[in-house]
Structures are given as C-alpha cells and as structure tokens.
Write a structure and sequence with these properties.
This protein is α+β, with helices and mostly antiparallel strands and about 130 residues long. Helix content is about 35%, strand content about 25%. It has one domain. Helix 2 packs across helix 3. The N terminus is likely disordered. It comes from Hyphomicrobium album.
Length: about 130
C-alpha cells in the first residue's frame, strides 16, 4: 500500500499555516482524506497509478519523494482543479490529475477560505 502522508496542510500565499482558522485546517484534512481514499480506490486508474509509484520509486525518472498538490474546491464541494509538478511519465501525471479531480469532497469549503489549498504529500511504499 502507498503512503500519502501530509507533511503540511492548508498553506496559502497570504497566510502562515499556523495562523489559519481551524475550520480551514479541518477542511484541508478532509481534502487530504478524500484524496487518499480516491488513490486507494479499487479502479483501473488508481491501480495503474499505484503500480507506477511502486515501480518507479527512487528511480531518477520516478516520482518525487515529496509532492505539493494545490487544489481548488468549488462551493458545492467538487474539485474544480488540481495542480502539481508533472512526473517523468505523462500517463502517471494524467492519472493522478484524473484521480484527484473526479470526486466531491462531501462538504463545502469554509466561508472565505483562501484557495488553492496546498497539501504536501510524501509518496512512498507503506511498510
């Protein structure tokens, strides 16, 4: 199983992560949880992405050890878009973008929450 562990949550260019309202941090944690659920899903795209991560971990052309994902969430909780550095494999980049953009977080973002929501993940094999 792959570990997608958040190293930092809810950073914005205008606010220090330590000074954001608790509701923003809670929502960012929910986004992180949903992304992890979607990455662990039992479907072809998520499975293919997990295979890519395992097969290329630590390789010079493989995924980075740490990945920053920026997410924009619509008022209805759907993911509007995500942004992250491209992988060496365009198919893996497309798969991750598809996985992270296809769902609904299940809640509305808190009022006046600054976006994008910045999440830092450690990509690696869970022990």
């Amino acid at each position: 199983m792959l570990a997608l562990a958040p190293a930092a949550v809810a950073q914005t260019p205008l606010r220090d992560p330590a000074s954001v309202p608790p509701s923003w941090t809670q929502f960012a944690q929910l986004v992180k949880y949903r992304f992890e659920e979607w990455l662990s899903a039992d479907d072809a795209i998520a499975a293919r992405f997990r295979v890519y991560l395992k097969a290329h971990a630590g390789a010079s052309d493989g995924p980075p050890a740490t990945l920053i994902v920026q997410a924009w969430v619509n008022p209805d909780g759907s993911v509007e878009r995500v942004s992250f550095p491209a992988f060496g494999d365009p198919g893996a980049t497309k798969d991750l973008r598809t996985i992270l953009s296809r769902g609904n977080i299940g809640e509305r973002p808190p009022p006046e929450m600054l976006q994008p929501i910045r999440l830092r993940f450690n990509l690696g094999a869970a022990k």
